[in-house]
Specification:
The protein has about 250 residues and is of the alpha/beta class. It has a domain at about 20-105 and about 170-250: 3-Layer(aba) Sandwich (Rossmann fold), CATH 3.40.50.300. The protein has helices at about 55-60, 110-115, 120-135, 150-165, 180-195, 210-215, 235, 240-250; strands at about 20-25, 30-40, 40-45, 70-75, 75-80, 85, 95, 170-175, 200-205, 220-225, 225-230. The longest helix is centred in the last third of the chain and has 17 residues, at about 180-195.
Length: about 250
């Protein structure tokens, strides 16, 4: 992106994002071993707490390093332990939105969203901030400080900040846990439309089966750090859907 223009790189509508990875990693006593490729523009990583969802997203974001492995996005290698390659998080065109938003407490909401846009002129930067806050449903929060926000409001702002630099890959770790069902569904619908329009691939980690089923996503099912299944939500989560239906029938 040239300084001052604010123009996003043109992406062909037919361009198909591919995220490929083969990872062997440890966090404490937990051991993650996964190998797969995501061809969908929206993939949900589903599994119970402790299955490795957050660990996987941190590896993809470049925040953690694997013992062995490789990560490539659209044929661009981000990590490859065989040759000692590990791009820093800021060089991956990747954004991570965690369950606990890490906003800068000394900056306003608008300044938080603008933080990654320092290469743009003032007018372009202001327009991008306004666009991202509107997308996240947080326009009326622009002048507030993070300590004045509710949990759900902070999650909206964190999403707007992550999207502002126009990443190629958006990683979402239980990002809407503080929003009620209606608000979460509305935000997800707007977000998916925006991501599709701007050719941004998204990976969302969740332990809520309704998030996966509601978005008709490609689903990676993780359990104890291993891949159990990868495919359409209706197929991969058929057992989970039946379990929920059975519980509802007994109420």
């Amino acid at each position: 992106m040239r300084k001052g223009t604010g123009a996003r790189p043109k992406r062909k509508s037919a361009e198909r994002a591919v995220l490929e990875f083969s990872l062997d990693a440890r966090r404490g006593s937990f051991h993650l071993q996964v190998e797969c490729a995501f061809h969908s523009d929206w993939t949900v990583v589903f599994g119970p707490s402790g299955s490795g969802k957050s660990t996987l997203l941190r590896l993809l974001a470049g925040l953690d390093r694997p013992i062995r492995g490789r990560i490539a996005l659209n044929s661009r290698t981000l990590t490859d332990t065989a040759i000692g390659l590990h791009l820093a998080p800021g060089r991956r065109s990747t954004a991570l939105v965690a369950q606990q938003p890490a906003l800068f407490p000394h900056l306003s909401v608008a300044a938080n969203v603008a933080y990654g846009l320092r290469g743009l002129d003032h007018a372009t930067r202001a327009a991008r901030v306004e666009e991202m806050l509107a997308l996240a449903g947080a326009t009326d929060l622009a002048g507030r400080r993070p300590q004045e926000l509710s949990g759900g409001e902070a999650q909206r702002v964190a999403l707007a900040r992550a999207l502002a630099p126009a990443p190629r890959l958006l990683l979402l770790d239980e990002p809407f846990s503080a929003l009620d069902g209606v608000a979460s569904d509305a935000l997800l619908e707007r977000l998916q439309l925006w991501l599709r329009k701007n050719a941004v691939q998204a990976v969302m980690a969740t332990h809520d089966v309704t998030d996966a089923l509601a978005t008709s996503a490609e689903v990676l099912l993780l359990r104890e750090g291993r891949v159990i299944a990868l495919g359409p939500a209706a197929q991969v989560l058929a057992a989970e859907r039946e379990r929920i239906a059975l519980r509802l029938r007994t109420i």
